[in-house]
Structure formats: C-alpha cells, structure tokens
Amino acid sequence: MPSFSLITNLSQGKIPVDFLTQASNLIATALGKPESYVTVRIEADAQMIFGGSNEPCGTAELSSIGRLGIEENKVLAKTIGEFLEKQLGLKQNRVYIRFIDIPRAELGFSGTTFEELLGKK
C-alpha cells in the first residue's frame, strides 16, 4: 500500500508526462512491494517557500505498511532525493521527505483493513 505524494512550487508544465509512472515504479522497487498497490500523487503550482526562498522546492511523504525504519529511510531518502533532482530539478536540500510507517489496522482497503487482509502478525 505504499503511497507517495509530492507538493511542489514547480509549475505543472515542468512535470514530465511520465513522472507518475516512473515514480510508481521507483517506489515499488525501492520498497520491494507490488506496484499494483502503489499510489503516487503530485500537486504542482503550490504557493510555497523553503528557507525563506521561493526557488524550486517541495515536501514529500512516503507511507507504507512496513519496510520503513531508521536504516531503510536513509536509503529511501537518497533514492527519492536523487530521483526528484534528476526528474524535476528539485535540489535535494530543497525537499523534505516524511516517512510514515502505518500500522495494518489503521489502513482501510476493499471494505476492511490490511490487518484483516494480511492477517495479524
């Protein structure tokens, strides 16, 4: 159920047409989860500043059931940061990435929760 969202002050015109597809594949690969569960959202043209400057910037969130933690997040921060810099030109020191490990019982899907779908572990 990985979900990745990015809010940025970049204009919509600067977002590559295939950004969502590439980001979905990146997240699935980085977390070792099926891409069929991945969601990706981008909100461009946000009115935002970072460190007092309106140069290109953003805030991102990656939520997942598991596969997040101290060491994993270091790798993910590097992987996602490099991806955003390459694809969008967002410098890594102009984007915060928040990692959220969601308990199975706190995420609904298909009329139930992942705790019920995946079993209690």
| Biggest sheet, spatial arrangement of strands | 2-1-3-4
Percent of residues in β-strands? 15-25%
- Going by CATH, what is the homologous superfamily? Macrophage Migration Inhibitory Factor
Average pLDDT metric? 96
Rg (CA only): 15 Å
Largest sheet: 4 strands, mixed
Through-space gap between termini: 17 Å
Q: How many domain units?
A: 1
Number of strands: 6
Structural class: alpha/beta
**Helix and strand element order:** EHEEHEEEH
Catalytic activity: 3-phenylpyruvate = enol-phenylpyruvate; L-dopachrome = 5,6-dihydroxyindole-2-carboxylate
InterPro entries: Macrophage_inhib_fac, Tautomerase/MIF_sf
Keywords: Cytokine, Isomerase, Secreted
Enzyme class: isomerase
Distinctive features:
31% helix, four-stranded mixed β-sheet, 121 residues, elongated, alpha/beta
Task: Describe the overall structure.
- With 121 residues, the protein is of the alpha/beta class.
- The protein has a single domain (3-118), classed as Macrophage Migration Inhibitory Factor (2-Layer Sandwich), CATH 3.30.429.
- Helix content is 31%, strand content 24%.
- It has three helices and six strands, in the order βαββαβββα.
- It has helices spanning 19-31, 70-88, 114-118; strands spanning 3-8, 39-43, 58-64, 95-101, 108-109, 112-113.
- The chain has a four-stranded mixed beta sheet with strand order 2-1-3-4, with helices on one face.
- A hairpin with a 2-residue loop joins β5 and β6 (112-113).
- α1 runs antiparallel to α2 (70-88).
- The longest helix is centred in the middle third of the chain and has 19 residues, at 70-88.
- The radius of gyration is 15 Å and the shape is elongated.
- The mean pLDDT is 96.
